[in-house]
Amino acid sequence: SSQTNEPLQYRVSPSDMEVAVKTLHARDHSAMIDVKKFYKRQTDTLKKMASLNHANLISAITAYTKEDEHCFVFPWAHGGNLCKFWQEYKGPRGSDLTKWALSQIIGLTTGLEMLHKDNVRHGDVKPQNILHFCTGDRTESLGTLVLADVGLAKFHVDHTRDREQITSTRHGTVDYEPPEPLNQQISRYYDNWSLGCVILEFVIWLLYRSDGLDSFHKDLKGDNKHKRFWAPVLGTKKDLHPKVRLWISKVKEDSHSDSVVWQLADLAKTSLLVDIDRRTEENQNMIKKLKTIETHFQGRNSDEWEFPADFVTSPSFETDAMRPGFVESSKFKESRKDDSELTYFVEPDDDHQPPTAVGLPILPTIASTQQFNLLKEWIRICDDSHDCISAPENLRDAVNGMPTRVLFVGKDKNSTIRLVDSSDLPQQHYVALSHRWGDLKEHEKLCTLEEKIDQDGNIEQDGNVNQFRLEVPFTFLPKNFQDAVTVTRAIGVQCLWIDSLCIIQNSALDWEAESVRMEDVYSEAYCFLAATSASFSAVGFLNEREPRPCVTVTTPGGPLYLSKAIDNFQEDVSEGLLNTRGWPQSQFLADAHFPRSGLLYYKDERIRLVQHLYEIYSALNLTRIKDRPIAILGIETRLARVFETNAKLGVIGKFLLRMLLWHAAKK
């Protein structure tokens, strides 16, 4: 008989390259013929693999013979194999890891298909034969998974195979072999079953890590010697192992149907871990299906908002959930959707310290004391944690620190609402409202107007500015404005800015003077109210919402509430009706509470982000087209401040040439 040795590691000078040398040698003279035949066949196979030049297929450096030894030289895999990676990986969870895993699965599948087209069958696809090539310290990237040991030759494994002899055997490792009869001719579809086993294990690891994978193997093995993925059913019939079906169901239950892990588990069950006839049918569509999953995954909104301990998803929840690092150590489910399955938070008056988010177990009644207490607690946390707003006594002078006019709303519903000049008020905070009129006609909109007199001294247009200086009756206000007044009073602020009431709408001079200060108005606002849920002004935004279920978890730090996640920033805000309008979009970015880090988060790609903002803005709607340059001035001014440069006509001075490359969006 004959055998292979464990690969030896060598360091080659002067390049200081590390290589692995795998040696074939015969145990006795009679086995030498088998060794020579295998060496010739393996050499031909490795030449074919090298010619394919595929990143996920092993490429031999050379092959040589020395006396009775027949050797192959390969690059050394610093990461060991896939099994070792699963056992030792301690890095972060999340979309980057999932994206890498999916790309490697696609690469391995593509490489295997290329081998099959070249009439090469691997015969022993398993995690131990998938090498992990990475930098020595693994700091740059997660590396590349490479399919090795083509032809059943032993390479880079931690455990000896059950059958160590080098023969022309048609069988690979027992655990990953398909359920085909032993006397049936083996084809490329043998490898597809084994690949399905590896993909399912990868999915289980992504969701439950090493502990989950160990539990799966334990369930699969039971009292048997091997942990095959199939089991005998009746007579000679074989089918997918009941435990495998159970774990696939568990993966699907614990992940969103739109997630990568769910899709991969389903693919393994329906296309790979099936009888050979079905595998034959599915083979030609395998790469296409994987690419579809990848395309869908890459199509996710890529904005990653770093907000401490807010939205998490986990198949298990620990009682010490309040401890630091809990979010990082939980077993998260990766989903293609931005919204998570679960939200956890503590009450506004709880003693827990951030990073736990503040919220309420049951959605509070709209405009109730409970809801406004929650709002005030969020604002308090912002005041205590951020430096984006100044104290009233440190505000700039009246001309720059506050808008020219504001609505003085007072402390409660008994207060008279009136339009006042900010110069007549002591320095104080104010709230700014962003809203959408909807499809109202001009005469249906509540606006501040000045009296217009023609050349003959006749009143051409009635005005209301003087009346509003005395009182703006609450009942006169559309629902959006009423709700804004209610919220402003509830959070302890007495001044409210609404563009249509604080800018004289039929005065070209006033409009020109005030519109160019829009960035200052929103930047200096203490709080910014966006009526995102209101399709038009008469709807309002303090409306009843659908209740959501909630459970309470007892922790050493106090009660922790778990509720169904209902927040979807992308759909509800970024893509909401309000932000299809030009003015609100410029208001949102101009707002001081839009973090500086939000603009700089993309680092070297920040120029593309600016170009993207302009491109999006070019497709937004404005009541008056001529307002577009004025409206975008808020964005422009803010960007100039962040990049510490000048800006004009939509061009950031520091990046003049690059800023000429964007184009208008296609509506």
Automatic annotation (TrEMBL):
SUPFAM superfamilies: Protein kinase-like (PK-like) (SSF56112). It comes from Clonostachys byssicola. This is Protein kinase domain-containing protein. GO terms for molecular function: ATP binding; protein kinase activity. Residues 1-297 form the Protein kinase domain.
